[in-house]
Amino acid sequence: MAKVLLQPIGSNLEEFMKPQEWEANARTMEELERAIAAKREEVKAGWGPEYVKRVHAKGKLTTWERLEILKDPGTEILPIGTFVNYGIEFGEGKNKKKSPGAGVVTAFMRIENRYTMVIANDNTVASGAWWPKTPEKIERAQHIARRLRLPVIYLVDCSGLYLPEQSKSFPGPTGAGYIFKMNSLLSASGVPQIAAVFGDCIAGGGYMPIISDRVYMTEQAYMVIAGAALIKGGKSQNITSLTIGGADVHVHISNCADFRGPDDESVIKMIRRDVAMLPTSAAEYYRYGGDASDPAYDTHELKGIFPSDHRMSYDMRQVIARLVDSSLFWEILPGKGEEMITGIAKIGGLYVGIIANNQFLIRHPEHPDQKRPGGILYREGIAKISQFSRTCNDDGIPIIWLQDISGFDIGTEAEKEGLLGYGSNLIYTNSTNTVPMITVLLRKASGAGYYAMSGIAYDPVIQLSTPITRLAVMEGRTLAIGAFRTKLDDNFEIIYTTKEEYEKIKRGMEEVENRITRDMDPVKSASQMDTDEVVFMGELRKYLRAVVEMCYQAIGYRRIKNPRIWAIHDLHTLTEI
After folding, report:
1. Which pTM does this prediction carry?
2. Domain count, the chain
């Protein structure tokens, strides 16, 4: 019988870092985290206390109040897409408006001991209207739920499209209409969908609940193709939206809704009752009698392990030791492609494959007396992670990619070794894998290396960033040199004839470098939906544990081999040195 023999990994902080070094790094990280935490609170506040009062005056709860009642007691809400549209203003002059979180909350939530995807209009932001990127944010959540077969809960309180910006959210291929296609695809995939309407549900917002398996309405809720104001203008009929499409109509006449409840709290209880009827999580079954356990080293130590200077290296194995259960890890192919770390661990008692960039200098395979930098993909490393990725896919083991990559090797040697071909092999592997993949951008995510290591274009079930993530084709200084190459000599010094010319080129290079550096800000990436969520180092294991459990929650839709018959054993045996 083949056994999975996990070995201890990592060591105490004082064995590999000076205390003052860790403390300096931690202070820098804490400063970044404080800034991001303030932005999170800004988003969560919506349009502020005045709009909270308006919601309460209608006898309704705010969206976040509903979520707190809906989740299991003692569990946490794990938002994704928090910063979508952050820093963007719509309209002109006095009419400028912001849309915190694109006016919708999407989050993983545990309900009746099952993970769910919750999609809830923020009723403090333009009455839950859909802004530019609101549809894309909803669709991303639906897509994740479909990949993982998570029940989807819609908390609808939506006044329809934010009409002044409708041209940016209505017509495109991922515009508002695609939400309803995703509703249909979820239904066709057998993914449970439960919708509750708490207030406005107009036009497109009215279509979203209908395909759900259950549709609830409160006494204040209505669902209409067109609201009373539009009907009054178009047909000169003086009626209310509640009269047109309230619970009386849709529960008892049209059959577009199933049940009604007197208020928000009662309907939320009904949702929880429905979720309790669904199949229980299979995660315990796939723990094979084992238990989840914390890492042997405190996860919060991660905040000081990463150097303040992004050009400096750190020990990736110490990072892994602070993420995996009991700090145990079975490293596969340790003597090959040393710029890459591959292996098996458990998170929350469930098996995962881990692929990570080694940051240290490594041996050159052809010239053992030479060293070359880590954090770069070379031929052996690419082949190693391609094979490991394919093997995990065959065995049904979810893969976590821990990225800190500067890109592929370049130059004469790289081209002669056929890195283009090896890279294409890796990209093909990740493009065709069906096993869930989770991508974490720890620090650098540069160039084609970002793609090759399952960047968001390659459909990981979720991509997480951290406060120090630098997502870009290349660093600002490098890009500035490329942009001004014709103005530089072989040593990258500025070529000039006058002082004015020198200052102009220098200014231009600095502007390019500063702009690229600003663009690499992780909150900006999240605002553009180039990443799903920015998490703190101390939160990383919490998110990974939740998503890994989601990978095992549903059964019957993907292959999960028992560990005795893993192909990983064959790979290890045939390459053991």
Report:
1. 0.92
2. 3
